[in-house]
Design goal:
heterotrimer; A alpha+beta; B alpha+beta; C alpha+beta; B: alpha+beta; Ubiquitin-like (UB roll); 2 domains; 5-stranded mixed β-sheet; 5 helices; 5 strands; C: alpha+beta; Uridine Diphospho-n-acetylenolpyruvylglucosamine Reductase, domain 2; Enolase-like, domain 1; 5-stranded antiparallel β-sheet; 12 helices; 14 strands; about 35% helix; globular
């Protein structure tokens, strides 16, 4: 069967609505009698809370409720640990409101509900909290020092987890290698900063005993399950919907944020809808962040530049709690080998608590760090042996005939880190062509004679995607002929409504715009996990495909009975089901759906038309035989991947550095990307563009600056710099398609790819541009002032 | 509106204002501290204008005030008394057709989550009105007051180029 | 991030505004463009009890050429100046400076006088006014007071305005027709506040040497800094490479020792100032009439 829509750059179904300003984000929803909430947040990174006086706040006109920890009753429990791990021996999660200790600036201390957000904020100013500040652990260095203050009094050395993995025999490899180098690398915190902050709207219907929540989240169904447990409600009496979500990037897959518990709590208590919308300042100090790690790396290689062994010991900053377990450092450890044949690898990480905002995945989720280290290693080998950087990589690639390739580690899904497929050299070749790599040294030399410093950097990555446990899909043709699909994942801009429609349209012979998707509504589809880890297209998309195939088969079966033909002779196209070579013997999908539902009564235009057709009459036996699989044209299927599949890609950029000011501009940026079979290349390219922009932000513009008191001193867009259209270059994207053998359509994930290699290639480009100075970049992010300092410190500082 | 020449001005916390939004006249009594962004969204229920930062950097709240692009989060609603506002809801030509700028964004995949989009479209509308034939550099410079976290700006720039081209073509009945 | 409560008034006559200011003095804040004040209100970093909106004071809406200077009334928006044919013709340096202020959306509301009264160390217009040795006209019910830029800017977000006074006019002195001029900044992103910035005006002699120079920096201290020591280095020279190098070295002194923030250390700022000095002086010199 030829696929007409899979692989096509179909325009998005979502667009007209969003372009007209008719999107529905959480704050757009106004319910009758709705009240507004605000959160009082700790101004101290670490303190004992000795008293909270809310009387003045409660008395303020317009205030309906002020909650502190003592008012929460049974709800005052640490939120669930989302991803346990045997190495996570000292997990801690947050209380919905701090009881007697606060552990980061921004931690929720009180919750106010009032007539308006304005009045609620007035009430916050009236709450009097007595704090006894305590010593602050403001960095990994402080956390790991001897006699460090303790973030959690009972947790020795601030250690939440310690995990060692070994592949092969690294010691032996180091012992016999002709070259061994040691370097330290650091990556510092950044934040997702979606344009829409978080938000929760909760409504309790006392008559129905139903709790409904609209949340700007990437995981509505797990939240539904959790709220049901927390509030002792049956799951079907809790409905969680993620409406339009203005960007997630990982920060919205965290659960539970305190507000996701407090808002429904207040709504139930007051019997009125309550809405809490995070403002940007809160987003800086209470939405999860990521990226802080310190690596000590040893690497061994031979005279040909072949990597023999890596030992990577790193510290991971988890912030004040471990809500998401140790997924991020696990991914770092598993992603480090990259596209290279690394047979001897010692990985050891320690997860440390600090008095900062908790850490959970942000786009890339530990992979950017791993790629930074490994790509620096490749460049380090090249520099040491005076070899070309691309050539060193080529000598180390896993070859196409070596798949499946077992890295030897346990991946974040508990399964083996086994690469299913890849074409790494092909990707590099494409990139080199796009950048005119071989001629660049000439351009660079020419530019240097004019006092200009150009550099070229590359970064290769392998990205684990499409992990389970599963996703599901329901597809139903209704009697008007329209196709309704539902799934448990949700979109934050990735265009599922379009891409899943393309998948379904191919099977049912309709146009994508005839397929209407509902997602992110626990009432529309009961089972699901969420949108994260570059998994939704593959896992939910595969479920869509399987369900669509089922519906197609059912349609053919029923049509074959009605037309008295063989199912193999039945085709679906243009919204019709017909007999091949006899297209006049046709029904619309809507008519077929009616026929598939044997009732005494049927309604509407389609039903009337059916009456007038000459179709085979009912057969003897049950009107709805068991093998039919239920009435109507409907199917529900689930897809559970055997394990993750591994996408890959390589990016490169040409930059210009001004050594006197440390300013850098991008002259050219190219990305080659392999995410297997692509549903909609326009969507995938958009994802790469966006990821690259976040990567550039994370490499050169964005840094969260905490002072020694654990205060975030740049908690606004004025000083936390997101790149604008003037800073992001044009990005050329090319594709390699190495299908995955693991899923029915051969897809791999694409959502995070763009961001992953950027810090690595940026460092590579800077080293290249300023090679005469001998600079070696070992940290991310950089900014002009820091680059200036690094240059000054290098031996050949006078260029 | 009060006759200031006759009565000396007095301080208030509540004020009556009149505004025209997308051609429609509204009269409302509002708190003086109510931000224009909140007024548009929650008083007038025109939720297409979004709020991203409330300190004037992200541009999600951009609207046209007497034809000029401004950040509605940096204005008090009372300051809009007597003025004409255009929001994203006022952009589409007809019920079924999109404005050429919106259409160009669709064709070039210039939006993903859609949150920054209304603010960007209003900025683009003002930009192209002043400079109908911008270079890529000019486009990127003029867009630098609007943040987007999803698209990497590339397709937005392409959409603006396409929109500019189409708006320059002499066509019957295209609203500028 | 919503503003705290305040009382609001929007007088239509300057006298009314001044009367209110005098009555409420320190508890009142003047609201013009709001591009600086409203973020502070939203973040609850400012909480004035009274806000006096001056946007209806049409008597302050003027851009007038006067004898010796360009007079700009307090309610004139930055974009009006940017698009003013008069300013384009007679003081294009002002337009070059205004174009560095934020983004178009900010300049559509922000006022020239407001930016000056707010006195942010990294703001463009205070530096330009300082460079040109311009004036600020303030009024209260007691009368008018004219202050030179250097006496007006007293430190970080501080000016010499007394309670009860408001800025009514800014005076940008004209530049000699043969003078070259330039305005430049180093900033992290398009539209950001400057890391460091400078305004330069250089007047040539008849035999094409530097007659006099005006050079002022922003982003280097609590207030803009006029660097007369650097100007003196230039006088009588042709701004050759060696002179520029000397000037660039000397200019580093303008960075005060407490100018460290998340974006720049003092040392780095000094390095930027050095580079900026060369560039802005070269650019200004090139523009001179020969």
């Amino acid at each position: 069967m030829t696929t007409r829509w899979f692989g096509a750059a179909v325009q998005r179904t979502e667009d007209p609505r969003l372009l007209r300003g008719k999107g529905t984000y959480v704050d757009d929803i106004d319910l009758p009698e709705m009240l507004h909430a605000a959160v009082l947040r700790s101004p101290h990174a670490r303190a004992r809370v000795t008293a909270i006086d809310v009387e003045a706040a409660r008395a303020l006109a317009g205030v309906h409720l002020v909650l502190t920890a003592k008012d929460l009753g049974g709800v005052l429990e640490p939120s669930p640990l989302l991803v346990p791990h045997p190495a996570l021996t000292q997990p801690r999660t947050q209380l919905p409101l701090a009881l007697d200790e606060v552990r980061y600036v921004g931690e929720a201390v009180a919750f106010v509900v009032a007539e308006s957000r304005y009045v609620a904020e007035d009430a916050l100013d009236l709450i009097d909290v007595e704090y006894e500040p305590l010593p602050v652990v403001h960095s990994l260095e402080v956390a790991s020092a001897e006699d460090a203050p303790l973030v959690h009094a009972e947790i020795e050395d601030n250690i939440a987890a310690h995990f060692v993995q070994t592949v092969g025999d690294p010691s032996a490899a180091f012992a016999s290698a002709s070259h061994v180098l040691h370097e330290s690398f650091s990556v510092e915190r950044g934040a997702a900063m979606p344009m829409e902050c978080r938000g929760v709207l909760a409504r309790w219907d006392a008559h129905e005993g139903m709790l409904s929540c609209w949340i700007s989240t990437q995981g509505p169904i797990p939240i539904r399950n959790g709220l049901a447990a927390i509030f002792h409600l049956p799951e079907h009496k809790v409905r969680v919907t993620a409406p339009d979500v203005g960007g997630g990037f990982g920060t919205k897959i965290m659960m539970f944020y305190p507000e996701e518990i407090l808002t429904p709590f207040a709504a139930i208590h007051l019997n009125r809808p309550v809405k809490w919308i995070e403002d940007r300042r809160e987003n800086f100090i209470s939405s999860n962040q990521e990226r802080g790690q310190l690596h000590e790396v040893d690497y061994a290689f031979d005279d040909q530049g072949v990597l023999l062994a890596v030992k990577d010991i790193f510290l991971h900053d988890t912030g004040a709690y471990t809500p998401y377990g140790i997924i991020v450092p696990v991914i770092t450890a598993c992603s480090l080998p990259g596209p290279y044949r690394l047979k001897n690898y010692a990985s050891e990480f320690t997860v440390l608590y600090t008095n900062k905002v908790p850490v959970s995945p942000y786009r890339g989720a530990g992979r950017p760090h791993a790629v930074f280290v490994m790509e620096r290693i490749m460049d380090g080998i090249a520099r040491e042996l005076n070899l070309d950087r691309a050539e060193v990589r080529s000598r180390n690639f896993i070859q196409p005939d070596e798949f499946p390739w077992d890295v030897g580690l346990v991946y974040q899904d508990g399964g083996p880190t086994t690469y299913d497929s890849g074409s790494y050299q092909a990707g590099l070749d494409k990139l080199k062509a796009m950048l005119d790599y071989d001629h660049f040294p000439e351009c660079q030399a020419e530019a240097r004679t004019q006092g200009r410093y150009l550099g070229l950097g590359i970064g290769y990555y392998v990205e684990g995607t499409s992990i389970g446990p599963y996703e599901g899909a329901n597809i139903r043709v209704e009697s008007d002929g329209r196709i309704y699909a539902a799934t448990g994942v949700t979109s934050q801009g990735q265009a599922h409504a379009t891409t899943f429609a393309q998948i379904v349209a191919d099977q049912l012979g309709v146009r994508p715009e005839d397929v209407l998707l509902t997602e992110g509504d626990s009432q529309a589809f009961n089972w699901g996990v969420g949108t994260f880890a570059s998994r939704a297209a593959t896992v939910a998309g595969s479920a869509m495909h399987l369900a669509a195939v089922k519906v197609r088969e059912k349609a053919k079966k029923i049509a074959s009975e009605l037309f008295e033909a063989s199912p193999d002779d039945i085709e679906l196209a243009d919204g019709k089901v017909f007999v091949k070579d006899a297209p006049h013997r046709a029904l619309t999908l809507g008519q077929l759906a009616i026929s598939a539902n044997p009732l005494r009564y049927s309604y509407g235009e389609n039903a009337r038309k059916l009456m007038s057709m000459r179709l085979a009459g009912p057969r003897p036996g049950p009107a709805l035989p068991a093998e039919r699989g239920g009435p109507g044209l409907e199917a529900t299927e689930f897809y559970s991947p055997p394990h993750g599949s591994f996408a890959s890609g390589v990016h490169g950029a040409i930059i210009e550095v001004d050594p006197t000011t440390g300013m850098v501009s991008f002259l050219k940026y190219a990305a080659v990307h392999d995410c297997g079979k692509v549903i909609n290349p326009m969507i995938v390219e958009g994802q790469v563009h966006g990821g690259v922009a976040q990567g550039i932000g994370g490499a050169f513009f964005e840094r969260l600056v905490y002072n020694e008191e654990g205060q975030l001193i740049n908690a606004s867009f004025m000083d936390y710099l997101l790149p604008t259209a003037a800073e992001i270059p044009s990005i050329t994207v090319d594709h390699v398609e190495t299908p995955s053998p693991l899923s029915p359509l051969g897809m791999k994930g694409a959502g995070e790819a763009g961001v992953i290699p950027v810090p690595a290639l940026f460092a590579s480009a800077i080293d290249d541009a300023l090679a005469p100075s001998g600079i070696r970049v070992r940290e991310m992010p950089l900014h002009p002032c820091r680059l200036y300092e690094l240059l000054k410190a290098t031996q050949n500082a006078q260029i | 509106m009060q006759e200031q020449e006759e009565n000396p001005p007095t301080f208030t916390e509540q004020s009556l204002i009149e505004v025209t939004v997308n051609g429609q006249h509204y009269e409302r009594s509002i708190p003086v501290r109510l931000l224009l962004s909140d007024f548009i969204r929650h008083e007038l229920h025109l939720t297409g204008t979004h709020v991203g930062c409330e300190h004037g950097v992200c541009g999600c709240c951009t609207i046209l005030l007497n034809g000029e692009a401004v950040r509605s989060c940096l204005m008090l609603a009372v300051q809009a008394d007597g003025m004409a506002i255009t929001t994203i809801e006022g952009m589409a030509g007809t019920q079924s057709e999109l404005h050429p700028i919106q259409q160009a964004f669709r064709e070039k995949h210039g939006l993903q989550c859609g949150f920054c989009t209304p603010g960007i479209i209003m900025t683009v509308h003002a930009m192209l009105h002043e400079n109908p034939d911008p270079t890529e550099e000019e486009i990127r410079h003029e867009l630098s007051g609007n943040l987007c976290r999803c698209t990497g700006y590339q397709n937005i720039v392409e959409a603006v180029k396409l929109a500019a081209e189409r708006l320059r073509e002499p066509q019957m009945g295209v609203e500028q | 991030m919503k503003p705290p409560r305040f009382q609001y008034c929007a007088p239509h006559l300057l006298d009314e505004a001044l009367a209110l200011l005098s009555q409420y003095g320190e508890d009142a804040k003047v609201l013009a463009g709001g591009q600086s004040l409203i973020p502070l209100l939203n973040m609850r970093l400012a909480g004035p009890a009274y806000i006096i909106d001056i946007n209806h004071l049409t008597e302050l809406q003027y851009i007038e050429p006067e004898d010796g200077y360009l007079a700009i009334g307090a309610t004139v928006r930055q974009r009006q100046v940017e698009h003013s044919p008069l300013v384009q013709q007679k003081l294009p340096l002002l337009i070059e400076a205004v174009r560095h202020i934020g983004h178009m959306q900010i300049r559509n509301r922000g006022t020239i006088a407001g930016s000056i009264a707010h006195a942010d160390p990294a703001a463009e217009l205070p530096a330009l006014l300082t460079c040109l040795n311009g004036e600020i006209v303030a009024q209260s019910i007691q009368g008018e007071r004219v202050m030179k830029a250097e006496e007006f800017f007293t430190g970080y977000l501080s000016t010499a305005l007394e309670p009860g006074e408001m800025v009514v006019e800014i005076r940008f002195p004209w530049i000699a027709p043969q003078a070259g001029w330039a305005f430049m900044e180093f900033a992290r992103r398009s539209g950001d506040y400057a890391l460091v910035g400078a305004a330069a005006v250089i007047t040539p002699t008849l035999d094409d040497r530097c007659l006099n120079a005006h050079l002022a920096f922003h982003g280097v201290a609590g207030s803009p800094v006029r660097m007369r020591e650097v100007e003196n280095i230039l006088v009588g020279t042709t701004l050759d490479e060696q002179t520029l190098q000397e000037a660039a070295e000397k200019a580093r002194d303008c960075v005060s020792n407490d100018m460290e923030d998340v974006h720049a250390t003092v040392d780095y700022r000094r390095s930027l100032v050095s580079e900026l000095t060369k560039r802005v002086l070269k650019a200004a010199w090139v523009r001179r009439e020969q």
